[in-house]
Amino acid sequence: MEAGMKKEEKIKIKIKNSLKVFFAVLAVLLAAMAFLSGAARGQERADEDGEKCLGCHGKREMTKKLREGRMTVARIDEKAFRASAHGFLSCRDCHEGLFPPGGRHPSSRFRSREQFEARYSRICRRCHPDRQLREKGVHNDVLEKESGGQTPVCTDCHSAHSMKPAPRGRILTAEEIYCMGCHSRPLSMTFKRDEAMPVDVDVREIKSSVHSSLGCSDCHYGFSSQEHPVRNFKTRRDYVIASSDNCRRCHFDKYAQNLESTHNIILSKGNLKAPVCSDCHGSHATARIAREKTVIARRCRGCHTAVYEKYARSVHGRALLEEGNLDVPACTDCHPAHNIKDPFTLSYRERTPEMCANCHGNKAIASRYGLSVDVVKTYLTDFHGVTLGFYRDQKGESYRPGRPIAVCTDCHGSHEIKGTLGPDAAVLKANLVRACARCHAGATANFPDAWLSHYGPSLRNAPLVFIVNLAYRIFIPVMLTGLFLQILLHIWRYAVNR
Amino acid sequence: MGTAKSFSVRRFSYRRIIEHWLYAAVFMALVITGLAQKFYFLDASKRLIMGLGGIDSVRLIHRLAGVLLIYLTAQNILAGLCGVMLKKWKPNMIIRKKDFTDAVEDLRYYFGATEAPASCGRYSYKQKFEYWGILTGAVLMMATGLVLWFPAFAASYLPGEVIPAAKALHSNHALLIFLIISVWHIYNSIFSPEVFPLDTSMITGYISRKRMVEEHPLELAEMEGAGESVHAGKNVPPFNPGSDETGMKTS
Q1: Which of A464, A475, A480 sits opposite B161 (nearest CB)?
Q2: What is the ipTM of this complex?
Q3: Domain presence at residue B164
Q4: Which of A234, A265, A442, B119 is the most buried (most CB within 10 A)?
């Protein structure tokens, strides 16, 4: 008995499976037909439809009899329609039910005008999503009704065929209409080994981005109303990385710079977490982040969290993030975005004073905070700065520097940099001995005083050095004058005696 | 007999000649590598430093030359002290009151107030000024140089400010010595009308009797008074490179 039952069940399952396969094949075929027919429609379909439809519907006496017996006007004023906000659409974009595959005009299917309008209002909402409606308070009522299960009628307020463009609104280009026909609805893209990625697009995001004037296929090349190639990516990350190649077509300079960047280098070594264009710039909502230092810092934080936390507590980070001060450096001021270099190399280290001098050697900036621009000069003319200068010159030669020389960040720190005025000064000073001892083994508490803290020697600061310099400035000319006089007298006497 | 030496007096032994030229070589090495660092911003300095293999090797050369200078100076002081204490040499280099009066007298002579210049012994006040100037300068350069070479060590005994002060002293005094040597010493040994085109006494070890009469009359008188004839053409002083300072025995 049991075995018989099992047999029956097996047969049932077999039938079920074969039905599943049948429907799946059917679905694929239907989809392919739909796609082919969609592709067959040319770009001129708007005009074609317009001619065909308006042949009848442009006539004044055109009316339509509804099933309940009432008559309604079915005439379209072509002129008003072409001038309207929807003028670039073709008839079938909204009246898709009226274009059956046979090409025959369908007979009346509407009971009443109300039913007709309610049906078409749902079609409006394909292109005009909730987000757009919410922008204007007047639509609150509509949205409320909708969530209550009713169908609000758009044409109650907006006329259907002579819809005026909204003030400051933009007319979408035909390509966008085509693409947005699907991509304005929740869609997702699947990957072999990864979670799906939503591919629905908010047009307004693009329209408020720096790329507002671009069409879809400007970036998504290979895609058009005719072509929608199927692409297979293993993971979502693979897709994002491959897509960043799209930017190259216009931003070739940045692309070339980026090739040598540390991000690209680690990416090409196989670390897929390394950022590509869209990771920093976004994709559809690309903004000019160069003008927004805070935005930059936060973008970098995505991966460099620990560094960001340090920076946020530093004298620079606090000024930027708490006071909105744009004089201070954000990440990209020292790590220039596209040709970002590995900061652990000697050549990066050797450019440090240059980077700091961009602001600390700039009188206009430094004077705003009571800072001295001498900090750069006093470093560059002292032992470490002079040595650094030679090390940099020696780069091209065959000999390499013996060891790295102290630069700004060795005493001041980099991301965690503290102010030198106020309470932080003591911390800096206390850390100095340790900083010195990194190269000068056995440095004691006295040792940091050897560095005159970016001040030139004066009677108040480093009097010993000041006095020595002053003494020689007087003594050397006096001594030389004496010697020259002696020589002249000697020669003169010798000449006289002869 | 009758050679050129007959008219000459031995002034410097080979040891002193070798010492002088070693000192000169080390001095030049120090000046070149040192001034290039002091005037690092000049193109010539940059070319020189790059030519010598970069700043690190220039500093290494400077320090090695410094070590040689310490050695030469130390042996000079020791030799001087021993020579004087063992009574082999007379303490000719000691500065005496006569040196100051000589200087005044020479000035008076230059201005025509007296007929003859001051008569000097083995070393004139000018030579003493140079010798002591170089010796004290060398000691100062060594001390400050060592502070700069081992700053952490120095700062463990002295206040930190001593290090930049040592640097100021080192570089300023180096310039001073360099200028004194290149003006005064070069004038006196090359361009001075008495020796032009070159004072060869530091090469041959001999000085002409004529110059002894003019420049070191007291020493000459002492030598001749001691019974060793240096008259021209007679009794050539014994050639004795082993003895120090002069060819004559002072004991």
Answers
A1: A464
A2: 0.81
A3: yes
A4: B119
Give me the residue from B110, B169, B179 closest to A476, CB to CB: B179
Span B91-108, average pLDDT: 86
Please give the span between the terminal C-alpha atoms of chain B, in angstroms, as a whole number: 26
Domain count for chain B, please give it: 1
State the DSSP H helix or E strand holding residue B8, giving kind and residue range, or none if neither.
strand B8-10
Residue B249 placed within a domain: no
Q: What does the domain layout of chain A look like in residue ranges?
A: 54-167, 341-456, 459-498
Backbone angles phi, psi at A82, to 5 degrees: -65, -30
Residues counted in chain B:
251
Q: Which two tokens stand for residue A242?
A: 């491959």
A vs B: CB pairs below 8 A: 123
Measured between alpha carbons, how far is residue A329 from residues A345, A356, A359 in Å? 21, 9, 9
DSSP assignment letter at B5: G
How far, rounded to the nearest angstrom, does the alpha carbon of residue B123 sit from its chain's CA centroid?
A: 11
Query: What torsion, rounded to 10 degrees, do the Cα atoms B11, B13, B18, B20 define?
Result: -40
Q: Give the pair of three-digit tokens for residue A175.
A: 């390509």
Closest residue, chain B, to A382 (C-alpha): B164
Helix axes B97-110, A463-497, angle to 10 degrees: 50
CB B36 within 8 A of CB B58: yes
B161–A462: do the CB atoms touch at under 8 Å?
yes
Whether B241 has a pLDDT exceeding 50, the answer reads no
Alpha-carbon separation of residue B97 from A396, B94, B139 (angstroms): 60, 10, 24
CATH code for the domain of B65: 1.20.950.20
Domain extent at residue B92: 4-225
CA nearest to B170 within chain A: A468
In tens, the pLDDT along A51-67 reads 677 778 877 777 777 77
Task: Determine the distance from the C-alpha atom of residue A131 to the mean position of all C-alpha atoms in its chain, rounded to a whole number.
Answer: 23
Any A CB within 8 A of B192 CB: yes
User: Which of A399, A450, A469 lies at the smallest CB-CB distance from B151?
Assistant: A450
Q: Which of B92, B83, B74 is nearest to B26 (CA)?
A: B74
Cα distance between residue B63 and residue B33, in whole Å = 10
Copy the structure tokens of residue A395. Answer: 């780069």
Work out the percent of chain B whose per-residue pLDDT is above 90. 45
